[in-house]
Amino acid sequence: MGKASANNVKSDKEAAKPAAKKDENKDFQYIVRIANKDLNGERPIPLALSDLKGIGLRLGYAIAERLNLQPTKKIGELKEDEIEKLKEYVENKEYDLPDWLLNHRREPVTGKNLNLVTTDLDVQVQEDINLMKKIRSYKGIRHEKGKKVRGQRTRSNGRRGLSIGVVRKKE
User: How many domains does the chain have?
Assistant: First the structure.
């Protein structure tokens, strides 16, 4: 009889644990929306931010440190005001971080160092390519022709299109 009552006590304790855990997670958000993208609330702040195009893991850690947030804390555990502060900081293009950490340094029109995210980054990259094409720079011409831009080999690699096989010299 003693064993049966001990088992009942254990099962009662185990049953109480999940209920307590659910009570702790009342404010937990499983999806957090930042910069028009849904982020997984179960991931730590830097990892969740790295899901945004234009923010890597290192920048995610830097943003968490700048806003005095624990990098190990899950993004879904943040309070509403902390999430708003994070949204505002990420969507702001001018970060108060070192220049080498940003993805669009010395912007041609204003000369400022920016970090662009999501569609802003896509649009800016396309504008930069169009500017190179317009001014007929070497990189712009390579972009127009669909060739490799960054100095890679083209003789034996990256073949696509109509050519079939290797062209041999006639003897």
Answer: 2
Model pTM above 0.70: no
pLDDT at 15: 53
Residues ≥6 apart with Cβ < 8 Å to 70: 45, 64
SS3 (DSSP) at 31: strand
Contacts of 120 (CB under 8 A, 6+ apart): 54, 93
- State the CB neighbour count (10 A cutoff) for residue 169: 4
Residue 159, SS3 per DSSP? coil
What residue type is assigned to position 25 of the chain? N
Return all residues near 141 (Cβ < 8 A) that are at least 6 apart: 133
Q: What CATH number is attached to the domain comprising 68?
A: 1.10.8.50
In this predicted model, what pLDDT tens digit does every residue of 84-114 receive, in sequence order?
Answer: 999 898 888 888 888 898 888 888 788 888 8
CA pair distance 141, 147, nearest whole angstrom: 9
* Domain assignment present for 9: no
**Looking at the domain assignment, is residue 5 inside a domain?**
no
